[in-house]
Amino acid sequence: MAGISLRKLRKTFGAITVVHDIDLEIDDKEFIILVGPSGCGKSTTLRMIAGLEEVTGGDLVIGDTIVNDVPSKDRDIAMVFQNYALYPHMTVYKNMAFGLELRRSPRDVIDRKVNEAAEILDIRHLLNRKPKALSGGQRQRVALGRAMVRSPEVFLLDEPLSNLDAKLRTTMRAEITKLHRKLDATFIYVTHDQVEAMTMADRIVVMKDGHIQQVDTPQVLYDRPANMFVAGFIGAPQ
Ligand code: ADP
Ligand code: MG
């Protein structure tokens, strides 16, 4: 079980506070989306959950453990980035297998996990290719596959679709929603795209300047925005 609690979570860089004591309860298996303008602290929040950024204040709780001091590699979490960060010299298979190889998983387990993920993502025919021979959408699938092979309870996705063209973005939105149902994991997804948030999320967290403005379902956010900022942000064209 991997519900996540942010309790007065704070991040400062030098003298500047970029995440201001935020409180948030994320349910196990929820698809939660953090939205807000560029620079409002979305990625920093996600990176603290991933353990890629130290917590300055407050507590971060995963399941029933305070993980402030737990190293990233010991958290049951996988992260997918906007730029995919695939290893260019490795095949798709190797890109997906590499994390498990580092953890010294048995060869047959690695093989099964990679093939299962590739099947779900419809990239089995690409396993022997190198990233440079793939389209943007295919690279995105590989990045998802690389996260999936570890079967984490929590997926963190930071603007995973922002490098794709509009048409592919629409397709991938639906794919990621399907994937969330299939994987039965908690998804925490960052975007600055309100349409993405409104169509994919169980609940949306609207952030501004390191503060949370509102946490609600898309419907409630649309019907009853808490303030002018939320109303403007949700209503604004893409
Ligand atoms: P978002 O993902 O919402 O666009 P970020 O979390 O990346 O925002 O950044 C929030 C703020 O923190 C920005 O003002 C950014 O410049 C600042 N910031 C992020 N990382 C660092 C860092 N390593 N050092 C200093 N400032 C940073
Ligand atoms: Mg960001």
From TrEMBL:
Signal peptide: none annotated. The keyword Nucleotide-binding applies. GO terms for molecular function: ATP binding. Transmembrane segments: none annotated. Residues 4-234 form the ABC transporter domain. Keywords: ATP-binding, Nucleotide-binding, Transport. Belongs to the ABC transporter superfamily. This is Sn-glycerol-3-phosphate ABC transporter ATP-binding protein UgpC. It comes from Roseibium salinum. The gene is ugpC.
